[in-house]
């Protein structure tokens, strides 16, 4: 026990494999070549967006498992989540996979919260293979949180685009040559009174800044100890605000800071402030970051996934947007 | 950092809404939609037996038909992102609100999906439109009765 919300993994559980699937529009992503599978149809040839959402998650799980020559029946736990009401895509995915399952909701921070829980199960020796991850499907999420997909409303430059992507990782006991999970910090819900769902980055930035400082002071590290510190989906606006907030806390050196949401679609202005969604951080962490760690380009990274814990109803009732950020530290030895 | 300070910082960092540019784009988009509608009205007056007053009904129906096509082909949302209020205020925007909701909820069936969700966005336009028409008509009736204005 190190402190409140701080976790250290002595056995260094490893991320042994990852699986990332993405929708057709994600061919515009700067990271498209790193995704394992890109569909040509947003609905993957299925009847509904929600079915496609589940299918994407199933495929990502199967890809990750196949990379470690395993079958769903070999996996001990499935810890995944998404943004659809009651997480039905994850539930349907779990039905198909038949792996003991707990659905997790930390909004877009689920990529890291699931990793933390998978690492804990592995740490205590209860799991040989645990699948962790998150996903989002643009059409399924937009219709729930905003307007119908084809509705012609004008979005401001601070708005973000929900990605269609699923990213999962297979966590195993320590394995040489694979990124290992060193420590983590569970976030506190932070709410600085932001109410605009078209500026989610601004709402989430304080949560990211809070978790970063708690992680650094709690685990006794500084920003320069990391090759990269990557936030989840702050987007271009939120990322700027986050850098200002950490500068306020005395961290000026932000050259190794990256944000998956701000980078996901490159500089394409049609995506406004960048990407968001549970699949955004999961897809980048489990492709770009995982690969660069495996080849030894990154030795130590800090992933801080951010989530806006609002519902369409809480927004209509004029509530503020509570946000969370969970951090996990990966090392490559 | 407290909420007030953060709100100030957020205002500083977030890109400003380009008001003048948006107004111009809305003017252009709305203007073009109305110009097209004007041609449609002229078409009905020239080739059919409609007067300037009666041509409005078939014109509105035709414009909604165009809006339906554009929504179905995924173009109206692009026009909406460019034009803002310019494409939301004309009848085509109303059509888009109804049609996009209908497309969206087809997966839940025709009764519980399309039927009950079609007016989810446009419903309040109808409700408050009818209500404000009632209030305006009431005021005018009173004024006519008082002899201030005539019908």
Automatic annotation (TrEMBL), chain A:
UniProt cross-references to Pfam families, sorted A to Z: SpoVAD
Name of the molecule in the record: Stage V sporulation protein AD
| Alphabetical list of Gene3D superfamilies matching this protein | Stage V sporulation protein AD
Name the source's superkingdom.
Bacteria
A GO molecular function term, named singly, is: acyltransferase activity
- Which species does the entry assign this protein to? Sporosarcina limicola
TrEMBL record, chain B:
- Keywords attached to this entry: Membrane, Transmembrane, Transmembrane helix
Transmembrane feature ranges: 26-47, 59-76, 83-103, 123-143
Domain of life of the native organism: Bacteria
Q: Which InterPro entries does the record associate with it?
A: Spore_V_AC, SpoVA
Protein name, as recorded: Stage V sporulation protein AC
């Amino acid at each position: 026990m190190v402190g409140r919300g701080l976790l250290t993994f002595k056995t260094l559980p490893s991320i042994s494999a990852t699986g990332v699937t993405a929708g057709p529009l994600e061919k515009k992503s700067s990271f498209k070549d790193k995704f394992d599978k890109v569909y040509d149809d947003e609905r993957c040839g299925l009847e509904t967006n929600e079915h496609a959402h589940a299918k994407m998650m199933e495929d990502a799980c199967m890809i990750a498992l196949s990379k470690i020559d395993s079958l769903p029946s070999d996996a001990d736990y499935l810890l995944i989540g998404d943004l659809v009401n009651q997480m039905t895509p994850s539930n349907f995915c779990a039905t198909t996979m038949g792996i003991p399952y707990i659905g997790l909701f930390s909004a877009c921070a689920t990529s890291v919260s699931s990793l933390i829980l998978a690492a804990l199960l592995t740490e205590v020796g209860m799991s040989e293979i645990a699948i962790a991850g998150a996903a989002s499907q643009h059409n399924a999420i937009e219709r729930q949180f905003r307007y119908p997909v084809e509705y012609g409303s004008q979005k401001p430059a601070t708005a973000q685009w929900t990605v269609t992507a699923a990213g999962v990782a297979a966590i195993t006991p320590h394995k040489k040559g694979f990124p290992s999970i060193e420590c983590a910090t569970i976030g506190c819900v932070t709410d600085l009174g932001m109410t605009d769902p078209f500026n989610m980055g601004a709402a989430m930035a304080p949560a990211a800044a809070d978790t970063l400082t708690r992680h650094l002071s709690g685990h006794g590290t500084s920003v320069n100890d990391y090759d990269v510190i990557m936030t989840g989906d702050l987007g271009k606006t939120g990322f700027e605000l986050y850098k200002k907030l950490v500068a306020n806390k005395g961290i000026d050196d932000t050259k190794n800071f990256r944000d998956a949401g701000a980078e996901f679609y490159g500089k394409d202005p049609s995506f406004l402030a960048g990407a968001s969604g549970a699949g955004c951080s999961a897809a980048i962490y489990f492709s770009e970051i995982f690969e660069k760690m495996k080849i030894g380009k990154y030795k130590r990274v800090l992933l801080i996934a951010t989530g806006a814990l609002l519902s369409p109803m809480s927004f209509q009732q004029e509530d503020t947007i509570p946000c969370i950020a969970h951090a996990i530290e990966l090392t490559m030895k | 950092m407290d909420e007030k300070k953060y709100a100030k910082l957020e205002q500083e960092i977030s890109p400003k809404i380009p008001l003048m540019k948006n107004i111009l784009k809305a003017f252009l988009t709305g203007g073009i939609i109305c110009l097209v509608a004007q041609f449609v009205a002229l078409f009905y007056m020239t080739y059919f037996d409609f007067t300037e007053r009666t041509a409005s009904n078939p014109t509105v129906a035709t414009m909604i038909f165009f809006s339906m096509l554009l929504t179905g082909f995924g173009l109206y949302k692009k026009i909406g992102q460019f034009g803002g209020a310019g494409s939301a205020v004309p009848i085509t925007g109303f059509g888009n609100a109804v049609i996009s909701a209908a497309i969206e909820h087809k997966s839940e069936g025709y009764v519980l999906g399309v039927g009950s969700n079609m007016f989810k966005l446009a419903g309040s336009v109808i409700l408050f439109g009818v209500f404000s028409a009632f209030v305006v008509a009431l005021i005018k009736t009173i004024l006519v009765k008082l002899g201030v204005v005539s019908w």
